[in-house]
Amino acid sequence: MKKCYWIGSILLCLIMLVCGCDASPDEAETIAPPETTVAPETTLAPETTVAPETTSAPEITPAPETTVSPETTTAPETTTAPETKPKWTVAKPVIYLYPTAPTRVNVALDYAGMLTSTYPAYPSDGWCVDAQPDGTLTDPATGREYYCLFWEGEGEDYTIDSGFVVAGKDTEAFLEDALAKLGLTRREANEFIIYWLPRMEGNAYNLISFDTAAYLKAARLTVNPAPDTVIRVFMTWRGLDAPVDIPPQTLAAPDRVGFTLVEWGGTELN
User: What is the model's pTM?
Assistant: First the structure.
């Protein structure tokens, strides 16, 4: 042990001599080797995880918008409608029957047009009624009573070649006078005026004609038994904004003798 001690001292002295120090062996004994300072344990920072680099999706360039050309529609071929004659409504012809005694009467209508309404319903072989002198009509099949036979239809070729130009406000008085000359009774004329006056009196003027000849040709009646007197009044007319010149008509009617048939109707020419 001593041997080791001396060897250490000798080495220490040599070191001190080399370094220029005069320390004695005793001093060297008392000098402890420098205390080793342990460096504080280094705490490693947590390893940072680098997020993977984001790769941007390549920018998409929108395709140019395609413009669809509109489909060409071929215009349909125009068909020219065949020229047609105007059709007039033959409005409310009504037939009255006045036998001298109760009589069963058959009335057949041959109309050069199309019937649009009848009352009572028109059978294929014509109306069959029991007629009284006062004009009351009874359907023998149903027992129903009527005071007239009604029909209405469409026709053509009604014109006005002669007649009267009447101010709208004077139409009532004109019809009263004209219908009396044409042979209608007060009751028959009253029904005629009630039907037509509302359509006529608001016009500035009315062109009025009683076109009996054309009407008789278009609407033929066959009556059995045949009446002794037939009075058929048919008025054609149109409204006017101003008066026009037209040849006047002469109005007349036969006397009522024996079994009498009366009919009235009309049409407005537009």
Answer: 0.68
